[in-house]
Every structure is written in C-alpha cells, then in structure tokens.
Amino acid sequence: MKLLSLVAAALLLPFSTLRALDFTAQGATITVAAGKAEVAGHAVTVAAPVTLTIAPALVQAVSDEALKLSTDKPAGWAKGTRLRGCNARDVNASGSFIPGSLEIRVAKGGELLKEGEDYLVDPEWGHVGLGPKSKVTATDTVYASYRYSLRRMDTVQVAADGKVSLKQGQPHISAPVPPDADAGCVAIAHVFVDYGATEITPDNIYPITESPAQAVTASTPGRIPKTLAKLKAGEPVTIVCLGDSVTAGGNASKPELRYVDVFAAGLRERFPKAKIDVRNISAGGSNSRQWLDPEKHPYRDLHGPENPARFDRVVEAKPDLVTIEFVNDAGLNAAGVEESYSEILHRLEPIGTEVILISPHFTMWRMMGFKTMRETEHRPYVLALRDFASRHGIALADASARWEHLAKEGLPYLTLLDNTINHPDDRGHRLFAEELWKCFQ
Description:
By secondary structure, the protein is of the alpha+beta class.
C-alpha cells in the first residue's frame, strides 16, 4: 500500500477533533480512511473507511484515417503529419498516442507499410512521416489505423452524513475538468487519470487542502498610483498588454476568454466611469529581446513594418500602463532579466508609463526542469523577475504563484494546459486576469 496524507489545518475545528484524511492507492482503487479535517475552509467528516474503484483511461480507436506522409522527419510537436485523433486544437497532445498501435496501409484493407522503412512515427506526439525506403511518396494518400487515450479528472466527495462517493469526470484530449461535487457534498480530492492509466498511484491523487481564495501570491497593490488615480477619477486610461502567444490568446476557446479580454472586462466593471482602452500588442513565439532589438534578435526573419514584434508599437500607443508577459523569457538568468527589463523601463520612462510585470504560468515539466506537478517555483527567470519588481518598485502580477497553488486546490497544473505544452485553457487565462486585478486595489 502507498499512502498519501492530507494534513488538515486547525482553522475551523477544535484541535482535539482533527486528524488527517488518509488516501491509500492500490491497483485501480483508492481507499479513504475515516477521519475529520478542514478541506478548503469546510469542516468534513469521513464516517467510515471506503474503497473506491477508478475506471481506466478511455482509449479510442481510429480506423483508416486518410492522410499524406510528411517529408519532414517526425520529431517534437512541430514536425511531421499529425494523427488527427490526438489533436489538441493547434498541436497534438503529448502522450495521447498509444505507441505500437499504428498501422498504415496503401489502401483500405491493402498492403501494410513497414515502420522504419516506409514511414516513421514520433511515439510521444503521434506524428508520422516518410521513411528512408518508402514505397509511397508525399503526394500519395495512405490510411492509418491507431489508438489514442484521453485524460480524465474524477472527484472524491463526502456528504453531510460522512458518506464518501466518487463522481467520474468527462474525458478530454488534454485539459479535463473535474466535476463539481453534488449538492450537499464537499469535494475532498481529485483523481487524475492520465493517458493510458489502468492503475492509480499516490501521484494521481490530489487532495484539496485550500480554496482558490486562500492562494498567497506576491502580486502587489499600490504600485501603479497614477493609473489608479485616473481610473478612480473616471478619466481616459490606455493600457497596453505586451507579450507572446499567451497574451495573444492561445488557447482560449473564444476571444472574450483570453486573459487580456477578461482583465479588461473586469477593470471596466470595477471602474465603470473611466474610459478604458486596453490594447493587445503581442506576437506569438516572441521574447522581450526580440521586441527591444529586432536586428540582433530577429523575429521569424521579419524586418521593418512586416515585423509585429517592434517596441515602437508600444511607445506609439502612449500608454498610461503596460503589462508585460513573456513565458518565452523563461531562459533568461538574473543578468538577462536585469538587462532586458531595465531597457523596457528606460524606453517607457520619457512618456511616464507605469508597468506591471507578469510572472509566467507553469508549462510542461521538461521546459521548467520540474519532475512532478507539486514542485514549488524555482525557475531562475521567475525568481529574478520577482526580485527585479521588488528592487525597482514595479508592480507584479504573480501568475506563477497562482499556478503553483493549483496542487493545493486539487488540480494538477498540467490539466490547465490546453495544448499540453504552454498554452492555458480558459481557466488558466482567467488566473492571469485575477492576479492583474490585485494590482488595482
């Protein structure tokens, strides 16, 4: 038996009645021990131990999908022809494809092509391409049959009488949402059923220890006094949101759910008398150095007016305030942060623009050097960005800390990445807006 304990905080219940809620995992089951605890501000009692069976991850089969093999060697998220069942909108979902399940034929029911000779496959991303000795060409239509898996989040809930039950969630290709607890019940944990999972381990169990409202971040009110004064006075305010593909809106399901638009709508609700002009000036895949020095750091080999990543676009807007989000700056060390962001402040100083720096969200593990979804933030860029904001008296919207807190809310952060790499879903976009709003208090 493997044990995962939810240590309850003594906030609502007398200490003498408190104990941890224990979850054990074995095979396809989890067992919740009897006990009392505080769960995200709710006093809960598990009257008797209960064992719950978790259904395996859903596997889907595709037959005779017509496609043409790419001349690119399939490698990573961008190379090769995508198997469409694994598609998470703009990319294939990392890990969804079931390795070894692929068969490609020259015709439906026809000759079976050989992997390694006729075609190549990237087993992580579900991309295929022409092999070194292929019988077919890039213009030929072939037919692929394969299997892929979906993710799911289940909810463990307890009723007022202490009875524990399981509520199964809906499968999703990349970003499953756990079901809400039933009326009269409190959710005490979520179970993450990842691609191809048939058994549950403690790593799959996410006890709910805190609510979103209990998240402590380093977001800073009071550091944009001029902008805030104009808003309160009902004066016109221009805000530029500068950034990369996340600021541009990937992967929000619709424009009004991009964090920039959610942020703008919330500001207008808070300051209804002010005329607020929020401008999204962003370029997918860009970083701050490309905006500051496009000749030295060209953006997609574009130059002059054809290049959208030009800092003069920001200056020409004459903004009262600029918010800055660059998850693509995550490779910068402390010296790089000092250089790039000092230059941004220098260029904005003549027009009196205030600044809010946004710490980045969490991305796929290997991009951050993480090994689990419960690690605390330790990326050098993020630590340096927080330090820079503190030393320069610049406002900070600490989205990183909010994403770190998701594990305490019973959510593996990876389930908020709609493309499994670096683009948040609608829930993830809203987290940026919520941290930005804290700067306007």
